[in-house]
TrEMBL record:
Pfam families xrefs: ABC_tran
Region (Disordered): 295-318
Organism annotation: Streptomyces kanamyceticus
Record keywords, A-Z: ATP-binding, Nucleotide-binding, Transport
Compositional bias (Low complexity): 295-312
GO molecular function: ATP binding; ATP hydrolysis activity
Taxon lineage: Bacteria, Bacillati, Actinomycetota, Actinomycetes, Kitasatosporales
InterPro entries: AAA+_ATPase, ABC_transporter-like_ATP-bd, ABC_Transporter_VariousFunc, P-loop_NTPase
Domain ABC transporter: 7-227
Domain of life: Bacteria
Protein name: ATP-binding cassette domain-containing protein
TM ranges: none
Length: 318
């Protein structure tokens, strides 16, 4: 494994029953030390499944998790009925993470203070409000300085001050060389700081590149506003996508064994992307062009792409 990678999933698949449907398949994901990675996707696509695999609290049905960083996880649902006080639970977790008792107690109290929950330190977990138990869930993950911090909707339920404190804690972890992977329903969460964004689509993980305007659906899920176009394209054997195409795409699928790559592109940029593909040296073959989320364009076969191809002038080549 490369030295600077905190963790890698290699060819990972997960399904919950023998011969059941694959929730995830063929996931290759390397997370570098110090990086901040966002995972997104519609409800039920497998984001939490992916985070549990990264955190090592669930095992892949196929493929491997490589690397053994000291890992902490904030689950989507915190088991608030555990028979502990807040500080008792955190001290216990500190010891599980390898801290001595005194250090665990000090760290527990400091993190509760930081999240504005110092006043609840002696309160039984079962008596805490939802927001206060979320503070304990977050403190639990931070108290042992993890090398890999995995956050599943960790901001949900926190008040504004605690959300800002968690943002600061994420920045501190990264500054110390730790990697942070997160899922959050708010598309603006850590927006300027995120190094990479991946979307779970189908049962695959697509790296999302380029811009796009995010909006929020009524159910709280995030969607890319504006129509998108799906382009299937086949390049010369082993060729990388032209960089201008990669940066314009909002989603890039893993190539099929035949070398066909599926791209999601904002409709407003699809003409430019098609032109870039067709004028690349050597050119990429456009297999299909079709409507993605909210797209106005009907699915078309490659033959109708000829009109785009015909309008491309070689002089435009960059
Ligand atoms: N322990 C489990 N046993 C059986 N099926 C499961 C289990 N955990 C998740 N699944 C199934 O796997 C699929 C993906 O679930 P997962 O919770 O990973 O999605 P998600 O993208 O995090 O969803 P959400 O956005 O709603 O939180 C769903 O169909 C879910 O029912």
């Amino acid at each position: 494994m490369e030295r600077d990678l905190a963790i890698r999933l290699a060819g990972v698949g997960r399904r919950y029953a023998l011969r059941g449907p694959w929730v995830l398949r063929g996931v290759d994901l390397g997370i570098g030390g110090g990086s901040l990675v966002r995972i997104e996707g519609a409800n039920g696509t497998g984001k939490s499944t992916l985070l549990r695999l990264l955190a090592g609290i669930d095992a892949p049905s196929e493929g491997r998790r490589e690397g053994r960083p000291r890992t902490a996880f904030v689950p989507e649902r915190f088991p608030a009925s555990l028979p502990f006080s807040a500080v008792g639970y955190l001290t216990h977790m500190g010891r599980v993470h390898g801290l001595a008792r005194g250090a665990a107690e000090r760290s527990a109290e400091q993190w509760l203070e930081r999240f504005g929950a110092g006043g609840y330190a002696r309160t039984p977990l079962a008596e805490l409000s939802k927001g206060s138990s979320q503070k304990v869930a977050v403190a639990q993950a931070l108290l042992a300085d993890p090398e890999l911090l995995v956050l599943d909707e960790a901001w949900t339920g926190l008040d504004a001050a605690a959300r800002a404190e968690l943002d600061r804690a994420v920045a501190e972890r990264r500054a110390a060389g730790g990697a942070v992977v997160f899922v959050d329903h708010d598309p603006r969460r850590l927006l300027g700081a995120t190094d990479e964004t991946y979307a779970v689509v189908g049962n695959a993980l697509n790296r999302r590149m380029g811009g796009g305007t995010w909006s929020q659906e009524e159910d709280g899920s995030a969607v890319l506003a504006g129509p998108t176009v799906v382009i299937e394209t086949q390049g010369p054997l082993g060729a990388e996508l032209p960089p201008s195409v990669a940066s314009a795409a909002t989603g890039i699928g893993e190539p099929t064994p035949e070398g066909v790559t599926r791209l999601s592109v904002p409709e407003s940029r699809s003409d430019v992307v098609l032109k870039e593909l067709l004028t690349a040296l050597p050119p990429w073959h456009v297999v299909t062009v079709g409507g993605g989320a909210g797209a106005n364009v009907p699915s078309t076969s490659a033959s109708s792409v000829a009109s785009v191809s015909a309008s491309v002038e070689v002089g435009d080549r960059r």
